[in-house]
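Reopening this one. Same input as before:
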Amino acid sequence: MFTNHFKYIKHAMSSPISNILSAFGLPPAETAELLQAHSGAIAGSAALSALTSKFEPDDIDIWVYSDYYRNGPPPQRHIDALKSFKDFLELHGYEDITAITPQAITAAYYAKQRENNKAYKIGPLSRMTSHIQWFYSHARQKSIQVIHTFAPVSEVVKQFDLSICATWWDGINIHSLHMSSTLSGFMFRLRDPKNQKELHERLDKYKARGFILQDF
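Same output, byte for byte:
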């Protein structure tokens, strides 16, 4: 157990992800340990930046997986996991701007249950993610989002809009559903959202970051 623990901490300290975490004021080794302990992962642009070194990410999205579904309030182990991330981020200078508490989690759960017919028809990603997200801001104008998901991150990223964003770091390794094309600097659309304006804005953003759009 000690050997595996040392392995992922060493990896976090020696990989490009460490530079990103340090820029956000987070100690790489402790972040890796927290992700591993609570089935968490950093997915999206921050992981993509660590993989390709093409740009500096604007924020970090931390996805926290829980194996329960929407048939009851969140179990205590899940509340404890989210609180661990809250305490960790606040320790390193982040302010919780969404007031995460066990009471808030449970209240939000039941509120969303009352709107269930409407809330989960937005798209496939919304059916995998929770009813609440937590945002943290830092005095250095850094921001982090903690997102609860009902599915493992490897499944959640399949519902992302762009191939390059289906990239995540689990505290040990960086993974990508489309590793070869992403490393080659190419991107393609995984799905077409209804909001075409937002899609084109995101495409323009990643083109500016050095990626080339491939249409199939």
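So the earlier flakiness isn't reproducible anymore. For the record, The radius of gyration is 17 Å.
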